[in-house]
Design a protein that fits this description.
The chain is an alpha+beta fold and 511 residues long. It has eight helices and 18 strands. The protein folds into three domains: 161 residues, f41 fragment of flagellin, N-terminal domain (Up-down Bundle), CATH 1.20.1330.10; 104 residues, no CATH class; 115 residues, no CATH class. The strands form six sheets. A five-stranded mixed beta sheet has the order 6-5-4-9-10. A three-stranded antiparallel beta sheet has the order 2-14-13, covered by helices on one side. A three-stranded antiparallel beta sheet has the order 3-8-7, with helices on one face. The protein is rod-shaped.
Length: 511
Protein backbone atom coordinates (compact mmCIF):
# COMPACT_ATOMS: atom_id res chain seq x y z
CA UNK A 1 0.00 0.00 0.00
CA UNK A 2 2.93 2.30 0.58
CA UNK A 3 3.70 2.12 -3.07
CA UNK A 4 0.36 3.59 -4.03
CA UNK A 5 0.50 7.28 -4.66
CA UNK A 6 -2.72 9.32 -4.45
CA UNK A 7 -3.06 12.78 -5.74
CA UNK A 8 -3.36 15.55 -3.27
CA UNK A 9 -6.96 16.23 -4.22
CA UNK A 10 -7.93 12.58 -3.89
CA UNK A 11 -6.15 12.30 -0.58
CA UNK A 12 -7.78 15.49 0.68
CA UNK A 13 -11.22 14.33 -0.38
CA UNK A 14 -10.59 10.93 1.16
CA UNK A 15 -9.60 12.46 4.49
CA UNK A 16 -12.65 14.71 4.44
CA UNK A 17 -14.85 11.72 3.68
CA UNK A 18 -13.32 9.75 6.55
CA UNK A 19 -13.77 12.62 8.97
CA UNK A 20 -17.37 13.08 7.94
CA UNK A 21 -18.05 9.37 8.31
CA UNK A 22 -16.60 9.42 11.79
CA UNK A 23 -18.68 12.39 12.81
CA UNK A 24 -21.75 10.83 11.28
CA UNK A 25 -21.14 7.63 13.19
CA UNK A 26 -20.79 9.58 16.44
CA UNK A 27 -23.96 11.52 15.75
CA UNK A 28 -25.90 8.39 14.90
CA UNK A 29 -24.63 6.79 18.12
CA UNK A 30 -25.79 9.83 20.12
CA UNK A 31 -29.19 9.55 18.52
CA UNK A 32 -29.34 5.81 19.17
CA UNK A 33 -28.32 6.06 22.87
CA UNK A 34 -29.85 9.45 23.59
CA UNK A 35 -26.59 10.46 25.27
CA UNK A 36 -24.00 12.88 24.10
CA UNK A 37 -21.55 11.44 26.64
CA UNK A 38 -21.42 7.66 26.44
CA UNK A 39 -17.98 7.05 27.89
CA UNK A 40 -15.14 8.81 29.60
CA UNK A 41 -13.59 9.31 26.15
CA UNK A 42 -16.49 11.56 25.14
CA UNK A 43 -16.17 13.99 28.09
CA UNK A 44 -14.31 12.74 31.15
CA UNK A 45 -15.51 15.51 33.46
CA UNK A 46 -19.17 15.20 32.57
CA UNK A 47 -19.03 11.40 32.46
CA UNK A 48 -17.60 10.94 35.96
CA UNK A 49 -19.69 13.77 37.48
CA UNK A 50 -22.85 12.24 36.04
CA UNK A 51 -21.82 8.81 37.26
CA UNK A 52 -21.31 10.22 40.79
CA UNK A 53 -24.73 11.86 40.74
CA UNK A 54 -26.38 8.67 39.51
CA UNK A 55 -24.62 6.61 42.16
CA UNK A 56 -25.81 8.95 44.94
CA UNK A 57 -29.36 8.90 43.54
CA UNK A 58 -29.20 5.09 43.51
CA UNK A 59 -27.96 4.95 47.12
CA UNK A 60 -30.73 7.25 48.32
CA UNK A 61 -33.25 5.25 46.29
CA UNK A 62 -32.15 2.12 48.12
CA UNK A 63 -32.88 3.90 51.44
CA UNK A 64 -36.40 4.79 50.34
CA UNK A 65 -37.56 1.22 50.94
CA UNK A 66 -36.46 1.42 54.56
CA UNK A 67 -38.08 4.82 54.98
CA UNK A 68 -41.30 3.50 53.47
CA UNK A 69 -41.25 0.58 55.89
CA UNK A 70 -40.71 3.05 58.72
CA UNK A 71 -43.82 4.95 57.68
CA UNK A 72 -45.82 1.73 57.80
CA UNK A 73 -44.38 0.79 61.21
CA UNK A 74 -45.49 4.17 62.58
CA UNK A 75 -48.92 3.87 61.00
CA UNK A 76 -49.33 0.38 62.46
CA UNK A 77 -48.44 1.72 65.91
CA UNK A 78 -50.84 4.64 65.50
CA UNK A 79 -53.60 2.24 64.47
CA UNK A 80 -52.85 0.16 67.55
CA UNK A 81 -53.08 3.20 69.84
CA UNK A 82 -56.44 4.14 68.33
CA UNK A 83 -57.73 0.64 69.12
CA UNK A 84 -56.23 0.72 72.62
CA UNK A 85 -57.94 4.04 73.28
CA UNK A 86 -61.26 2.51 72.28
CA UNK A 87 -60.66 -0.45 74.59
CA UNK A 88 -59.81 1.86 77.50
CA UNK A 89 -63.04 3.76 76.83
CA UNK A 90 -64.91 0.44 76.92
CA UNK A 91 -63.32 -0.38 80.29
CA UNK A 92 -64.31 3.06 81.58
CA UNK A 93 -67.90 2.38 80.53
CA UNK A 94 -67.88 -0.88 82.49
CA UNK A 95 -66.52 0.85 85.62
CA UNK A 96 -69.18 3.55 85.27
CA UNK A 97 -71.83 0.84 85.18
CA UNK A 98 -70.67 -0.16 88.66
CA UNK A 99 -71.31 3.39 89.87
CA UNK A 100 -74.79 3.28 88.35
CA UNK A 101 -75.63 -0.17 89.73
CA UNK A 102 -77.67 -0.60 92.93
CA UNK A 103 -75.61 -0.66 96.12
CA UNK A 104 -74.44 -4.24 96.58
CA UNK A 105 -75.57 -4.45 100.21
CA UNK A 106 -79.01 -4.68 101.79
CA UNK A 107 -77.58 -3.08 104.94
CA UNK A 108 -74.41 -1.05 105.12
CA UNK A 109 -72.18 -0.99 108.19
CA UNK A 110 -73.62 1.51 110.68
CA UNK A 111 -73.70 2.47 114.34
CA UNK A 112 -76.26 4.46 116.39
CA UNK A 113 -75.45 6.55 119.46
CA UNK A 114 -77.42 6.72 122.68
CA UNK A 115 -80.10 9.42 122.87
CA UNK A 116 -78.87 13.01 123.26
CA UNK A 117 -81.58 14.97 125.04
CA UNK A 118 -82.70 18.00 123.05
CA UNK A 119 -80.22 17.41 120.21
CA UNK A 120 -81.24 18.67 116.76
CA UNK A 121 -79.57 18.89 113.35
CA UNK A 122 -78.63 22.49 114.12
CA UNK A 123 -77.48 21.74 117.67
CA UNK A 124 -76.11 18.25 118.26
CA UNK A 125 -74.99 19.26 121.73
CA UNK A 126 -78.48 19.72 123.19
CA UNK A 127 -79.68 22.75 125.17
CA UNK A 128 -77.36 22.37 128.16
CA UNK A 129 -78.29 23.28 131.75
CA UNK A 130 -80.42 26.40 132.32
CA UNK A 131 -78.46 29.30 133.73
CA UNK A 132 -80.36 30.20 136.91
CA UNK A 133 -79.73 31.95 140.21
CA UNK A 134 -81.92 31.23 143.26
CA UNK A 135 -81.77 33.67 146.12
CA UNK A 136 -82.69 33.42 149.78
CA UNK A 137 -86.15 34.02 151.22
CA UNK A 138 -87.80 37.34 150.46
CA UNK A 139 -89.73 38.57 153.49
CA UNK A 140 -93.36 39.12 152.69
CA UNK A 141 -93.26 37.64 149.13
CA UNK A 142 -96.29 35.40 149.40
CA UNK A 143 -97.07 35.31 145.64
CA UNK A 144 -96.08 36.90 142.37
CA UNK A 145 -99.04 39.26 142.82
CA UNK A 146 -97.53 40.68 145.98
CA UNK A 147 -96.73 44.35 145.50
CA UNK A 148 -93.14 45.35 145.95
CA UNK A 149 -94.22 48.07 148.32
CA UNK A 150 -95.92 45.44 150.48
CA UNK A 151 -92.76 43.39 151.17
CA UNK A 152 -91.76 43.22 154.85
CA UNK A 153 -88.77 45.32 154.08
CA UNK A 154 -90.26 47.51 151.40
CA UNK A 155 -88.59 48.54 148.16
CA UNK A 156 -88.29 52.31 147.86
CA UNK A 157 -87.39 54.79 145.15
CA UNK A 158 -83.85 54.83 146.52
CA UNK A 159 -83.35 51.20 145.52
CA UNK A 160 -82.13 49.79 142.16
CA UNK A 161 -81.31 46.40 140.65
CA UNK A 162 -78.70 45.84 137.90
CA UNK A 163 -79.15 42.81 135.58
CA UNK A 164 -76.42 42.12 133.00
CA UNK A 165 -75.35 45.76 133.25
CA UNK A 166 -78.88 47.14 132.70
CA UNK A 167 -80.48 49.05 135.60
CA UNK A 168 -84.01 48.60 136.92
CA UNK A 169 -84.93 51.62 139.02
CA UNK A 170 -88.05 52.22 141.13
CA UNK A 171 -90.36 55.24 140.92
CA UNK A 172 -93.39 56.47 142.83
CA UNK A 173 -95.47 56.84 139.67
CA UNK A 174 -95.34 56.69 135.89
CA UNK A 175 -96.12 53.03 135.29
CA UNK A 176 -93.81 50.10 134.43
CA UNK A 177 -91.43 51.06 131.60
CA UNK A 178 -88.73 48.35 131.57
CA UNK A 179 -87.21 47.34 128.17
CA UNK A 180 -84.22 45.19 127.19
CA UNK A 181 -82.05 48.19 128.05
CA UNK A 182 -83.46 48.59 131.56
CA UNK A 183 -86.08 51.00 132.85
CA UNK A 184 -88.33 51.77 135.78
CA UNK A 185 -91.04 50.01 137.84
CA UNK A 186 -93.91 51.99 139.40
CA UNK A 187 -94.02 51.15 143.14
CA UNK A 188 -97.69 52.09 143.34
CA UNK A 189 -98.66 48.99 141.37
CA UNK A 190 -95.55 46.92 140.56
CA UNK A 191 -95.62 43.34 141.85
CA UNK A 192 -93.05 40.59 142.40
CA UNK A 193 -94.25 39.16 139.07
CA UNK A 194 -93.57 42.50 137.36
CA UNK A 195 -90.02 42.46 138.76
CA UNK A 196 -89.43 38.91 137.46
CA UNK A 197 -90.83 39.84 134.02
CA UNK A 198 -88.57 42.93 133.94
CA UNK A 199 -85.52 40.71 134.56
CA UNK A 200 -86.60 38.34 131.75
CA UNK A 201 -87.10 41.28 129.39
CA UNK A 202 -83.50 42.38 129.94
CA UNK A 203 -81.91 38.88 129.73
CA UNK A 204 -84.08 37.54 126.89
CA UNK A 205 -84.66 34.46 129.02
CA UNK A 206 -85.82 31.25 127.36
CA UNK A 207 -86.95 29.95 130.76
CA UNK A 208 -88.99 32.42 132.83
CA UNK A 209 -87.78 33.58 136.18
CA UNK A 210 -90.05 32.39 139.00
CA UNK A 211 -90.96 32.75 142.64
CA UNK A 212 -90.68 29.49 144.54
CA UNK A 213 -92.01 29.41 148.18
CA UNK A 214 -90.56 32.84 149.05
CA UNK A 215 -87.37 32.70 146.95
CA UNK A 216 -86.71 34.44 143.65
CA UNK A 217 -85.20 32.28 140.88
CA UNK A 218 -83.78 34.36 138.03
CA UNK A 219 -83.09 32.53 134.75
CA UNK A 220 -81.59 33.19 131.31
CA UNK A 221 -82.06 29.66 129.99
CA UNK A 222 -79.34 29.15 127.35
CA UNK A 223 -78.93 32.84 126.56
CA UNK A 224 -75.63 33.22 128.38
CA UNK A 225 -74.19 34.14 131.76
CA UNK A 226 -76.28 36.05 134.33
CA UNK A 227 -74.75 39.03 136.13
CA UNK A 228 -76.53 40.51 139.17
CA UNK A 229 -75.63 43.85 140.80
CA UNK A 230 -77.07 47.00 142.32
CA UNK A 231 -77.40 48.57 145.72
CA UNK A 232 -76.50 46.19 148.54
CA UNK A 233 -79.73 47.02 150.36
CA UNK A 234 -81.84 46.21 147.34
CA UNK A 235 -80.11 42.85 146.85
CA UNK A 236 -80.62 41.99 150.53
CA UNK A 237 -84.34 42.83 150.36
CA UNK A 238 -84.72 40.53 147.30
CA UNK A 239 -82.57 37.75 148.81
CA UNK A 240 -79.98 38.06 145.98
CA UNK A 241 -76.17 38.25 145.96
CA UNK A 242 -74.05 40.28 143.52
CA UNK A 243 -72.00 38.22 141.03
CA UNK A 244 -71.94 36.40 137.67
CA UNK A 245 -73.19 32.87 137.04
CA UNK A 246 -71.91 31.15 133.86
CA UNK A 247 -74.11 28.96 131.67
CA UNK A 248 -73.52 25.25 132.28
CA UNK A 249 -72.68 23.80 128.80
CA UNK A 250 -74.24 20.59 127.41
CA UNK A 251 -72.61 17.37 128.58
CA UNK A 252 -71.35 16.60 125.01
CA UNK A 253 -69.33 19.83 124.82
CA UNK A 254 -65.60 19.17 124.90
CA UNK A 255 -66.03 15.42 124.44
CA UNK A 256 -64.28 13.61 121.57
CA UNK A 257 -65.16 10.98 118.99
CA UNK A 258 -62.58 9.00 117.02
CA UNK A 259 -63.25 6.51 114.22
CA UNK A 260 -60.45 4.49 112.64
CA UNK A 261 -59.93 4.60 108.85
CA UNK A 262 -62.89 3.07 106.99
CA UNK A 263 -62.67 1.74 103.43
CA UNK A 264 -59.34 3.41 102.75
CA UNK A 265 -60.57 6.73 104.14
CA UNK A 266 -58.86 9.10 106.57
CA UNK A 267 -59.30 8.36 110.27
CA UNK A 268 -61.77 10.72 111.99
CA UNK A 269 -61.02 12.77 115.11
CA UNK A 270 -63.80 15.09 116.29
CA UNK A 271 -64.20 17.39 119.29
CA UNK A 272 -67.79 18.44 120.02
CA UNK A 273 -68.44 22.06 120.97
CA UNK A 274 -68.92 25.56 119.60
CA UNK A 275 -65.28 26.60 119.58
CA UNK A 276 -62.86 26.82 116.67
CA UNK A 277 -62.50 23.49 114.77
CA UNK A 278 -65.21 21.92 116.94
CA UNK A 279 -68.44 20.28 115.76
CA UNK A 280 -71.90 21.30 116.92
CA UNK A 281 -74.17 20.69 113.89
CA UNK A 282 -75.07 17.76 111.64
CA UNK A 283 -73.55 19.50 108.62
CA UNK A 284 -70.33 20.00 110.54
CA UNK A 285 -70.31 16.35 111.61
CA UNK A 286 -70.81 15.16 108.02
CA UNK A 287 -68.03 17.44 106.80
CA UNK A 288 -65.69 15.82 109.34
CA UNK A 289 -66.83 12.28 108.43
CA UNK A 290 -66.68 12.67 104.63
CA UNK A 291 -62.95 11.97 104.31
CA UNK A 292 -63.48 8.68 106.16
CA UNK A 293 -66.26 7.50 103.78
CA UNK A 294 -68.92 8.02 106.45
CA UNK A 295 -72.11 10.04 106.77
CA UNK A 296 -74.51 10.76 109.63
CA UNK A 297 -78.20 11.42 110.26
CA UNK A 298 -80.08 12.35 113.44
CA UNK A 299 -83.44 11.15 114.76
CA UNK A 300 -85.30 14.36 115.52
CA UNK A 301 -87.49 12.70 118.17
CA UNK A 302 -84.75 10.95 120.19
CA UNK A 303 -81.60 12.86 119.32
CA UNK A 304 -79.84 9.61 118.40
CA UNK A 305 -77.05 10.00 115.81
CA UNK A 306 -76.68 7.23 113.20
CA UNK A 307 -73.36 6.92 111.36
CA UNK A 308 -73.21 4.74 108.21
CA UNK A 309 -70.68 4.05 105.45
CA UNK A 310 -71.09 5.95 102.19
CA UNK A 311 -71.72 4.15 98.89
CA UNK A 312 -68.03 4.52 98.06
CA UNK A 313 -67.17 2.22 100.98
CA UNK A 314 -70.36 0.16 101.15
CA UNK A 315 -68.39 -3.08 101.50
CA UNK A 316 -66.34 -1.84 104.47
CA UNK A 317 -67.02 -2.05 108.19
CA UNK A 318 -66.84 1.16 110.18
CA UNK A 319 -63.47 1.41 111.91
CA UNK A 320 -62.96 1.14 115.66
CA UNK A 321 -64.87 3.79 117.64
CA UNK A 322 -63.19 5.60 120.51
CA UNK A 323 -63.01 8.93 122.33
CA UNK A 324 -64.74 10.36 125.39
CA UNK A 325 -68.16 11.16 123.85
CA UNK A 326 -70.57 9.36 126.20
CA UNK A 327 -73.33 8.65 123.62
CA UNK A 328 -70.82 6.62 121.56
CA UNK A 329 -69.10 4.76 124.39
CA UNK A 330 -68.63 1.03 123.84
CA UNK A 331 -70.20 0.98 120.37
CA UNK A 332 -69.01 -1.46 117.68
CA UNK A 333 -70.35 -1.32 114.13
CA UNK A 334 -71.68 -4.46 112.46
CA UNK A 335 -70.42 -5.57 109.05
CA UNK A 336 -72.41 -4.82 105.91
CA UNK A 337 -74.90 -7.42 104.65
CA UNK A 338 -74.35 -8.30 100.98
CA UNK A 339 -77.17 -8.42 98.41
CA UNK A 340 -76.60 -11.63 96.36
CA UNK A 341 -78.31 -10.31 93.22
CA UNK A 342 -76.34 -7.08 93.12
CA UNK A 343 -73.06 -8.83 93.86
CA UNK A 344 -73.68 -11.32 91.01
CA UNK A 345 -74.17 -8.38 88.66
CA UNK A 346 -70.95 -6.77 89.89
CA UNK A 347 -69.05 -10.04 89.47
CA UNK A 348 -70.24 -10.11 85.84
CA UNK A 349 -68.86 -6.59 85.35
CA UNK A 350 -65.51 -7.75 86.76
CA UNK A 351 -65.39 -10.52 84.12
CA UNK A 352 -66.20 -8.02 81.35
CA UNK A 353 -63.53 -5.63 82.61
CA UNK A 354 -60.87 -8.37 82.67
CA UNK A 355 -61.83 -9.42 79.13
CA UNK A 356 -61.20 -5.88 77.91
CA UNK A 357 -57.77 -5.89 79.58
CA UNK A 358 -56.95 -9.17 77.82
CA UNK A 359 -57.82 -7.50 74.50
CA UNK A 360 -55.51 -4.63 75.37
CA UNK A 361 -52.67 -7.15 75.75
CA UNK A 362 -53.31 -8.85 72.40
CA UNK A 363 -53.89 -5.59 70.53
CA UNK A 364 -50.58 -4.15 71.67
CA UNK A 365 -48.82 -7.35 70.53
CA UNK A 366 -50.49 -7.30 67.10
CA UNK A 367 -49.61 -3.68 66.22
CA UNK A 368 -46.44 -4.66 64.33
CA UNK A 369 -45.20 -4.23 60.75
CA UNK A 370 -42.36 -6.16 59.19
CA UNK A 371 -41.34 -7.50 62.60
CA UNK A 372 -41.17 -4.13 64.38
CA UNK A 373 -43.75 -3.25 67.05
CA UNK A 374 -43.43 0.17 68.65
CA UNK A 375 -46.16 -0.75 71.16
CA UNK A 376 -44.26 -3.79 72.38
CA UNK A 377 -40.93 -2.19 73.28
CA UNK A 378 -39.17 -2.30 69.86
CA UNK A 379 -37.07 0.57 68.50
CA UNK A 380 -37.30 1.89 64.93
CA UNK A 381 -34.09 3.32 63.43
CA UNK A 382 -34.25 5.04 60.06
CA UNK A 383 -31.35 6.25 57.85
CA UNK A 384 -32.06 9.16 55.52
CA UNK A 385 -28.79 9.71 53.61
CA UNK A 386 -26.11 7.63 51.89
CA UNK A 387 -23.44 8.45 54.49
CA UNK A 388 -25.55 7.14 57.40
CA UNK A 389 -25.10 10.39 59.32
CA UNK A 390 -28.74 11.53 59.01
CA UNK A 391 -30.81 9.15 61.15
CA UNK A 392 -33.87 9.03 63.38
CA UNK A 393 -34.36 6.59 66.26
CA UNK A 394 -37.89 6.12 67.63
CA UNK A 395 -37.99 4.28 70.95
CA UNK A 396 -41.04 2.10 71.41
CA UNK A 397 -43.22 1.68 74.49
CA UNK A 398 -44.86 -1.28 76.19
CA UNK A 399 -48.57 -0.64 76.06
CA UNK A 400 -50.04 -3.89 77.32
CA UNK A 401 -52.32 -3.70 80.37
CA UNK A 402 -49.38 -3.80 82.78
CA UNK A 403 -47.53 -1.14 80.80
CA UNK A 404 -50.58 1.11 81.11
CA UNK A 405 -50.74 0.40 84.88
CA UNK A 406 -54.01 -1.49 84.57
CA UNK A 407 -54.57 -4.53 86.76
CA UNK A 408 -57.05 -7.37 86.39
CA UNK A 409 -59.78 -7.48 89.01
CA UNK A 410 -61.00 -10.27 91.28
CA UNK A 411 -64.68 -11.16 91.61
CA UNK A 412 -65.81 -10.97 95.22
CA UNK A 413 -63.06 -8.48 96.02
CA UNK A 414 -63.28 -5.72 93.43
CA UNK A 415 -66.25 -3.66 92.21
CA UNK A 416 -68.01 -4.39 95.51
CA UNK A 417 -68.62 -0.67 96.01
CA UNK A 418 -68.03 2.70 94.39
CA UNK A 419 -64.57 3.07 95.89
CA UNK A 420 -63.26 0.13 93.85
CA UNK A 421 -64.91 1.45 90.69
CA UNK A 422 -63.48 4.94 91.24
CA UNK A 423 -60.02 3.45 91.74
CA UNK A 424 -60.31 1.63 88.40
CA UNK A 425 -61.57 4.81 86.71
CA UNK A 426 -58.58 6.75 88.04
CA UNK A 427 -56.20 4.19 86.51
CA UNK A 428 -58.12 4.18 83.21
CA UNK A 429 -58.06 7.97 83.00
CA UNK A 430 -54.28 7.94 83.51
CA UNK A 431 -53.95 5.23 80.81
CA UNK A 432 -56.04 7.30 78.40
CA UNK A 433 -53.81 10.32 79.01
CA UNK A 434 -50.71 8.19 78.38
CA UNK A 435 -52.14 6.89 75.11
CA UNK A 436 -52.99 10.40 73.91
CA UNK A 437 -49.47 11.57 74.71
CA UNK A 438 -47.88 8.68 72.80
CA UNK A 439 -50.26 9.20 69.86
CA UNK A 440 -49.08 12.81 69.68
CA UNK A 441 -45.45 11.68 69.74
CA UNK A 442 -46.03 9.07 67.02
CA UNK A 443 -47.86 11.62 64.89
CA UNK A 444 -44.93 14.01 65.15
CA UNK A 445 -42.44 11.31 64.20
CA UNK A 446 -44.63 10.11 61.32
CA UNK A 447 -44.74 13.66 59.98
CA UNK A 448 -40.95 13.89 60.16
CA UNK A 449 -40.46 10.58 58.36
CA UNK A 450 -42.95 11.46 55.62
CA UNK A 451 -41.25 14.82 55.10
CA UNK A 452 -37.88 13.10 54.78
CA UNK A 453 -39.40 10.53 52.43
CA UNK A 454 -40.69 13.28 50.14
CA UNK A 455 -37.36 15.09 50.41
CA UNK A 456 -35.44 11.97 49.37
CA UNK A 457 -37.72 11.43 46.36
CA UNK A 458 -37.27 15.01 45.24
CA UNK A 459 -33.52 14.88 45.84
CA UNK A 460 -33.23 11.75 43.67
CA UNK A 461 -35.05 13.61 40.91
CA UNK A 462 -32.67 16.57 41.27
CA UNK A 463 -29.61 14.30 41.10
CA UNK A 464 -30.87 12.35 38.10
CA UNK A 465 -31.85 15.56 36.30
CA UNK A 466 -28.38 16.97 36.95
CA UNK A 467 -26.78 13.81 35.62
CA UNK A 468 -28.98 13.90 32.53
CA UNK A 469 -28.10 17.50 31.87
CA UNK A 470 -24.45 16.48 31.73
CA UNK A 471 -24.85 13.43 29.45
CA UNK A 472 -28.09 13.52 27.50
CA UNK A 473 -28.02 14.54 23.86
CA UNK A 474 -30.24 17.17 22.29
CA UNK A 475 -32.08 15.01 19.74
CA UNK A 476 -33.09 17.98 17.64
CA UNK A 477 -29.50 19.16 17.43
CA UNK A 478 -28.15 15.69 16.77
CA UNK A 479 -30.76 15.06 14.05
CA UNK A 480 -29.76 18.29 12.36
CA UNK A 481 -26.10 17.33 12.65
CA UNK A 482 -26.82 13.93 11.15
CA UNK A 483 -28.61 15.52 8.22
CA UNK A 484 -25.78 17.98 7.66
CA UNK A 485 -23.14 15.24 7.89
CA UNK A 486 -25.08 13.08 5.44
CA UNK A 487 -25.11 15.98 3.01
CA UNK A 488 -21.43 16.59 3.59
CA UNK A 489 -20.71 12.91 3.06
CA UNK A 490 -22.56 12.96 -0.29
CA UNK A 491 -20.62 16.01 -1.36
CA UNK A 492 -17.35 14.39 -0.30
CA UNK A 493 -18.18 11.26 -2.29
CA UNK A 494 -18.95 13.41 -5.33
CA UNK A 495 -15.72 15.36 -4.89
CA UNK A 496 -13.75 12.15 -4.61
CA UNK A 497 -15.40 10.90 -7.78
CA UNK A 498 -14.43 14.09 -9.60
CA UNK A 499 -10.87 13.76 -8.42
CA UNK A 500 -10.78 10.21 -9.67
CA UNK A 501 -12.21 11.34 -13.04
CA UNK A 502 -9.22 13.66 -13.48
CA UNK A 503 -6.82 10.78 -13.08
CA UNK A 504 -8.92 8.67 -15.45
CA UNK A 505 -8.48 11.28 -18.17
CA UNK A 506 -4.70 10.97 -17.94
CA UNK A 507 -5.03 7.24 -18.26
CA UNK A 508 -6.94 7.69 -21.51
CA UNK A 509 -4.06 9.70 -22.96
CA UNK A 510 -1.67 6.94 -22.12
CA UNK A 511 -3.72 4.47 -24.06
Amino acid sequence: MTGIVLSASVRQNLLSLQSTAALLATTQNDLATGNKVNSALDNPTNFFTAQSLNNRASDIGNLLDGIGNGVQVLQAANTGITSLQSLVSSAQSIANQVLQSPVGYTTKSNVTSAAITGATANNLLGPGTNNTVTGTAVAGAAATTTKLSALTTAITTADSLVIDGKTISFASSGGNTVTSNGGSLDLTNATVGDLLAAVDTITGATVASTLGATQLTLSTGTAGPLTIGGAAGTLAILGLTAGTTQLTPPALSGQTLTIAATGGGTATSITFGTGANQVSTLNGLNAALAANNLQATIDASTGKINIVTSNDAASSTIGAIGGTATPFSGLTAAAAVADPGSQAQRASLVAQYNNVLAQIDTTSQDASFNGINLLNGDTLKLTFNETGKSTLSITGVTFNAAGLSLSTLTAGTDFLDNSSANKALTSLTAASTTLRSEASSLGSNLSIVQIRQDFSKNLINVLQTGSSNLTLADTNEEAANSQALSTRQSIAVSALALANQSQASVLQLLR
